[in-house]
Structure formats: C-alpha cells, structure tokens
Amino acid sequence: MANGGLANGGLLAVDGVVAGYGAAEQILKGCSLRIEAGEIVSIIGPNGAGKSTLLKTIAGLVSAREGAIILNGADVTGQGALGRAKHGIGFVPQERNVFGAMTVAENLEISGFQDPGKVRERSEELYARYPMLASKRRALARTLSGGQRQILAMAMGLMNAPALLLLDEPTAGLSPRAAEELFEAIVALNKAGLPILMVEQHALEALEISTRGYVLVSGRNSREGSGPALAADPEIRRLFLGG
Ligand SMILES: Nc1ncnc2c1ncn2[C@@H]1O[C@H](COP(=O)(O)OP(=O)(O)OP(=O)(O)O)[C@@H](O)[C@H]1O
Question: Which of 58, 170, 200, 233 has the least C-beta neighbours within 10 A?
Fold first, then answer.
C-alpha cells in the first residue's frame, strides 16, 4: 500500500474550491481543506451542504471552477478522474459502488486497471486482509450483505494502491453493528499507513476515529478541529444529536 506525504508536510491541499453542476449553480462556494500523511479526516455537515460534491471534486469527477487542488505537491486541478487516480487518489462512491452481476473476484480484477500485472498479487493481499472476501470470491457481489459490499467497494478502491483513499458515506444504510465493524476496518487500514478522507452521516462516530474533521455548511467551511474535540463540542453535538 503506497504511503503519501511530502517533505513540506501536505499530502492533499484543497484551496478555495468553487464547483457545481449546472451552468449557474455553485454548490461549493470556496472550500478548503488539507490532509497530511497518516491522517483520517472526516467531512461532516447537514444534508445538501456539498460534502459529496467536495469529495467528487477532489476525485476529479466534478471540475473546480475556481481554486486549486494540490496532491503530493502537484497541481492536479485541471486533471480528470483518471489523471487523479494515476496521482494516487482512490475513490469509493456512496452508491452503485460494486458490480452486482459480477463475482467478488471479478470486481477486484476490473478495479486494478492501472496495473494489470499486479492484479493477482493485490487480490491475494486483499483476500488475506479481508478473509470474508476470500471465502466469497466466487459469489456474485449482489449476494453480499450491506457491510460485506462496503468492504468489497473499499477493497476495489485499494486495487490501484492509492496514496489517499476517499470514502463517501461508507456506513450509509448499514446496521449499527455493521457500521461499527466498518469503522474498525477503516481504522485498521489507516494504521497500516493509508491516509483516509471520508464523508459521513454518522458524524460523531466518524469524528471519534478521525485525527481531524471539517464541518461544511452551505458549500463553505464552517468549523475545523481535531476529531475528538469536535465530537465533544456542545454545538456539534446539538447539531448532530439534536440535543
Ligand atoms: N448530479 C447533480 N446535479 C445537480 N445537482 C446536484 C447533483 N448532485 C448533487 N447536487 C446538488 O448539490 C447539493 C449538494 O449535494 P451533495 O450531495 O454534495 O451534498 P451532501 O452534503 O453530500 O448531502 P447529503 O448529506 O444529503 O448526501 C444538493 O443541493 C444537491 O441537490
């Protein structure tokens, strides 16, 4: 698994990014964030704040109209998703993130598109890391449980040995137990050396496992701090726990 990081300390810097979908629509109105080697960083905020849009803009699926995205010292703002992937961005979308009619093994295989010669070796590494995938390698992805599917989606994101993994609401729709297990898998992955940037609806649980967090409101940065400090903050608790 590749490690990110730069001599000057920044793996990813997002600076004043403006982005949207329609000709006139601005969803992100000047968002900034950074992530350093070794970190788990969470982006939280109310529905419609632009969290997924920010992640997609970093992945190169939505283009930035203003601002800059610097990855490992390289300005990747003008690059599309493939260019960003080549620079080490792995992106796990929230929905439709596995091919249901294909087996687990086939899902892994087609995800290793950047380095076909390494597909077998990386699949075996992932089977060793996630024995559930090994036992289900010939099962169709649509037969997996929600939590198993998310592990597969994450493993697919790892097939190109990214320097940074972006996760869009990885625990969406999971039972509390499955969500807890997925958070444990995310922490283990990070401890193995992979920086992670995630968007989460389970805001407090995500902050508790994060080095730092950002609160996004209406397409702008609202708050920023260490994960545990934000999780303990009365204003954040009121916003996300409703009391
Ligand atoms: N493909 C799209 N085309 C047009 N508008 C979109 C598109 N995707 C998202 N939007 C709009 O952009 C805004 C921000 O959406 P986004 O999904 O980034 O928010 P979010 O903070 O991730 O919200 P949620 O927590 O509800 O997923 C919303 O108003 C949404 O309707």
Answer: 233
